[in-house]
Amino acid sequence: MADLNQGEAIPELRVTPDKYLPHRYAGASGDFNPIHIDNDFAQMVGLPRNILHGLYTMAQVARAQTEAAGSDPRSLRRLKVQFRGMGVPEEEIVVSGTVRERDGDRVVVDTEAFQAGNGIVRNAEAEIELR
Amino acid sequence: MPVDAKAVGKEYPAATYEVGLEKIREYANAVGEGSDVHRDREAAKAAGFRDVVAPPMFAVVYSSPALGPAVLDPEVGINFAAMVHGGQEFVWGEPVCAGDTITTTARVVDISEKDGKGFYVFESTSVNQDGDEVVRGTWTNIVRGV
Fold this sequence. Notes:
The structure holds 2 protein chains of 2 kinds.
Chain A: E1 13-15, H1 21-29, H2 34-37, H3 39-44, H4 54-68, E2 76-83, E3 93-103, E4 106-115, E5 118-129
Antiparallel strand pairs in A: 1-3, 2-5, 3-4, 4-5
Chain B: E1 15-18, H1 21-31, H2 41-46, H3 59-72, E2 83-92, E3 101-114, E4 117-127, E5 133-144
């Protein structure tokens, strides 16, 4: 588990969603919007290609916090994100974060997710309870 | 055309969701949650859970069915062709485990306009079979060119 004192970085989470990840996430989540799973449809509506579900990317941001806190799913108490840009398959996602404040076992982390230098989750704030 | 805020405050019928062990496994695999507590009953019980426990973001799976009728409501008036998911917040309560029945209600909390964009904000509250709150969600959809 990271120390998570004020000003410290949480361990980076790096993950590269493969080409078929949006299909698996669609099945797991129930969100079959064709912009995520149909490359032709996505291009027809003006996107560069089929894009990741924002809530999949948010799940990676959530995972980075939980893992920083020792992988207990009860650790993550609150997560607020803004979706920016578009995440795509087959490109590494990097989730980073810095502890903004710590009060005993309560830790607030400023966090974000980037892909090839583009912020896809910005201004995110996580509240963790260390257990 | 300005946005119409008449639907603010409107609530929608509750939706219930029965949490299954295999669905938790499927979700954990899709998002890369590696812990055994999301897969193995004994590991989950050893960690103090009633049964295999859902990762926090599984909240999407059980709470979004209640959001559908709100987002699709003609009185809310979202233009889907120009809609993006702008932001999301979850505040977690009790953990959700396989075998739980989760009931979610959704309501419209804000409809506003800024810089030519419409902001449609929904809130959801999910409780388990014991009446304990498991998650509260705030869902912000942004519509360009309102």
